Amino acid sequence: MTATTSAVNHAVGSLVRARGREWVVLPESTPDFLVLRPLGGDADLVAGVFPEEVEPAVFPPPSADDRELGDAAGAGLLRTALRIGFRSSAGPFRSLAGIAVEPRQYQLVPLLMALRMDTVRLLIADDVGIGKTVEAALVAKELLEQGEARGLAVLCSPALAEQWQAELRDKFAVDAELVLPSTVTKLERGLPLGESLFEHHRYTVVSTDFIKSERRRDQFLRTCPDLVIVDEAHTCVPDTAGSGKRQRQLRYELLRRLAEDRQRHLILVTATPHSGKEESFRNLVGLLDPELETLDLEQPKGRERLARHFVQRRRRDIRRYLDQATPFPHDRYVRDVGYELSPAYRKLFEKVLAYARESVRDDEGNLRQRVRWWSALALLRSLASSPRAAAATLRTRANAAEAVTVEEADELGRAAVLDLADDEALEGLDATPGGDATDPGDPRNAERRRLLELAREADKLEGKADAKLATLVTEVKGLLADGYDPIVFCRYIHTAEYVAEHLAKALGNKAAVRAVTGTLPPAERVARIEELTAVAGRHVLVATDCLSEGVNLQEHFQAVVHYDLAWNPTRHEQREGRVDRFGQRHPDVRAVTIFGKDNRIDGLVLEVLIRKHREIRKATGVAVPVPDSGDNLVQALLEGLLLRGEEYVQEQLTFDDGLGLGEQRRLLHQEWQSAAERESKALTKYAQSGIKPEEVAREVAAVREALGSAADVAGFVREVLTALGAGVRRTDDGFSAPLTPLPVGLRHALETVTGGRGELICHELPPAPRGEAALVRTDPAVAAIAQYVLDAALDPSLPLRERPARRCGVMRTRAVSQRTTLLLVRYRFHLTLPGRVAERTQVAEEARVLAFRGGADAPEWLPKEETAALLAAEPAGNVLPEQVRQVAERAVAGLGQLQAALDARGEQLAVELRDVLRRVRTAAGAARRGLAVAAQPPADVLGVYVYLPVPQGGAL
């Protein structure tokens, strides 16, 4: 490019030269200070300079020197490099140029809802497995690209933090820092003096439970970015404003204070917005709009107000949405498989049950009895789980034994034993509970000796004496034989380790087996799963509920086995949702529930809760949590079993209200069914039928086409590496190439991406392992190759062998009947967009391929379809070197005559882009006042390629 000293022009979008390179003037510039972005470069690479430091720049025409001429392949490489390099599309969705995922049409609905709002306040509550993470991240990316938000914080559980970080990085090109107890010290150590962590790092993924503490909360609130996503938002609201557990109160206080800033964008994400507790739901939606806490949501006006902020769809609502089918698994096949205790196991069960009954009848006082009750329940539950969990429980002191009040004993006991809460994080809940409620002061305590003797008996039951384990082995072998890789879910860490150990022995070389439990930090859990799935052949993952929520496992597993019944049907739904979700390639998934026919506990839970949950879900299409009365029913059933025996439970048990077991169960199921039917009807109100995504889908498809497909990217990378002398080798899911033969500049750029390894390994489908590349346009390695191709084509000082794409070419082809010229043109646009406070101005770039027949003095411009077809034209013979030079010189010389037509085409494109923006905003119900698009001349001609016809008769 050459610089000129013509009249100074510092208009927004104009081209200037400074510091040895070319820049585009950005809207933030003032007469005294210019804000610049590198031409064709990353939007984040911004510089500020004084006007006297710059001079206007004029983009030079291609060279007609015969040494500079290329062929059709070179034209295609340059065009693709340009498309891949764009990060600031002028289309209606600025974010699409910077993401590596193609949103489904139904996933555009939350984005369109966000376009309606001055300040985005959204509750995305789609069903499990639909893609809420993509929907929330897409809205966030668009707000960041449009300049409506400057930073982002994602609040989630620590177990999901790395997954959020990977999703944002791999799919949305947002590189966020993890803020966890394990990372915060290192992060704070590197901060500049006086700068907070959230001021220094623009994007963060934060542990909700870490940041909610009073010591951390105030600093976060003071420096929190203007865009926040809250994952599993239902865990952050109490039943009423002044009640609930301490942890939930702290989370709610954090969110409430974040929401008080009415200029802060807030996106809440959950699959279970309504836990059956109306006050909890009101507190949740009240974070979006305080009036929703008190509005009558049964009335049309109340529902209309809520629908502005709330989107909730079932899988069946979007299995086919508009003209696009989403390939969810066709069905989920569910089986319950029972087993009977072996004689030795039944004998131990009777001994433990007898001890439990004796202990809970202790009359030493109310507190003492509650401690013993929870300890007894822990013993029975762990014994039903596995002999190893039972032995650990028998040897471990109960948490509830440390309580000083009945309330504290109940809270500690529930946390250790039950699954009835939908709202608590799953971290730490897989620890095996203690069942020893004795006084530790006397080491000769007879009761303690009795527990230790029972523990030794449990030790002897591992393996052959365990009928439950034998049943699992049979079921897993059957799944493997049918082509399924299962996940086996266990309640306790000890059980998971026991199951993994014995499964590995039983399966031998038929399948690889690994266990993932809460003993591993989240990063190591992911590494363990990657290690397992990297092994050739079939796989079995044994896990606790630390993996039952949020972690996506559908790429490698197709079945779930519930080795331990959860005492909460929602937990079963979460487990099965790890494989039954969008992206599952198997046509169906399987779920197997193993239960004890005669262990006194499983039958109660299965009949009262699990099967009823399935029945309601099948009938209504929604998964509704168990009503509060379900907690009381299960506890009463188990307490009756302990205190009086199974016969009493079945025949005589009555509750505080005088109702018998059958009546109480009937009322619970009736309440549950009614709640599900209400939710099912309500869902149709929140499918956002008023939004017209079909009017937007065309524009999205057009933008994606302009940016290039995955096949375009893969072909481009392969061609460039081959042209530069790097031998490309095919791999199972992509290809690889050594870096040594590459030009120094590109080699150094790729070595940075690969961590210094001497080979680039490319995968056709993201995500790619660390140090390797995914063949998507946002991957750093792909971006580096595209930038090199573009820079090299514009740098005549480089040797020809280091320039795979050329700006000028001539070829003969049967695709044309007369001389036809194809131009690769770059346009810059100045956009004025409505904003929540004031209008926003931005600069965007677009590339267009234009073609005409005849000469530059009287061009006949080709329609879009014929122009696109030229890119696929094949050579049909040689052209004499002298003719090539003459034709190229003539084409380049005629560019001056075409400039006015090219600039007029830019004005026409500006009108088309403005109409598209208006159309999309109209479909979303968003503001249009003040919207404008203006082309910034002159257009840059990057490439000139001439196609000559084959002479009649085939003579050349």
TrEMBL record:
PROSITE patterns: HELICASE_ATP_BIND_1, HELICASE_CTER
Entry superkingdom: Bacteria
GO molecular-function terms, A-Z: ATP binding; helicase activity; hydrolase activity; nucleic acid binding
Transmembrane segments annotated in the record for this chain: none
Residue ranges constituting the Helicase C-terminal domain according to the UniProt record: 468-624
CDD domains linked: DEXDc_RapA, SF2_C_SNF
Residue stretches making up the Helicase ATP-binding domain: 113-291
Keywords, alphabetical: ATP-binding, Helicase, Hydrolase, Nucleotide-binding
Keyword Nucleotide-binding: yes
Gene3D superfamilies: P-loop containing nucleotide triphosphate hydrolases, Tandem AAA-ATPase domain
PANTHER family referenced in this protein's UniProt entry, alphabetically: DNA ANNEALING HELICASE AND ENDONUCLEASE ZRANB3 FAMILY MEMBER (PTHR45766), SWI_SNF-RELATED MATRIX-ASSOCIATED ACTIN-DEPENDENT REGULATOR OF CHROMATIN SUBFAMILY A-LIKE PROTEIN 1 (PTHR45766:SF6)
The protein's name: Helicase domain protein
Organism: Carbonactinospora thermoautotrophica
